[in-house]
Amino acid sequence: MNKKPKPTVGYLTDGKGRWWRSETQPQCSDEDVFGLICQGVWGHRGVHWSYKQDGSYAYWINESDPGSIEKGIAAGWTPPDHESYVHPLDKRSEYYVTHHSVEEVVDPLVIERLENEDPPETDAYIDRPLSPDEIKHLEDTGRV
Fold this sequence. Notes:
about 140 residues; four-stranded mixed beta sheet; three-stranded antiparallel beta sheet; about 15% helix; elongated
């Protein structure tokens, strides 16, 4: 398996001076033969899994946990109307996006950096509300 990627880090503001730091654990990068990417968290146990465009639950063997799938089966999918269908709500706790934390930023030096579009981490993103001028520009160009 490849080296574990870093979590995704972002800073969000209400536009009124309050900031929050969000950290999401990396997504599993395993891909099935049809191009579906596993929706589990990096390094998870159990089968690799995702949902197809038609809503079917797709699963395939996890080479690092080969006992997680029935012997002789490499992959499969189950349509939503089948009795053994796995509903997305049942997979929520395994979904990589749910593996995150959010904490308020209180350090005034970090807040100052963020206000100047300079996040403390190299690859962190900053998410802030649009300014009135930015909204007007989008309206004037017909994008909203």
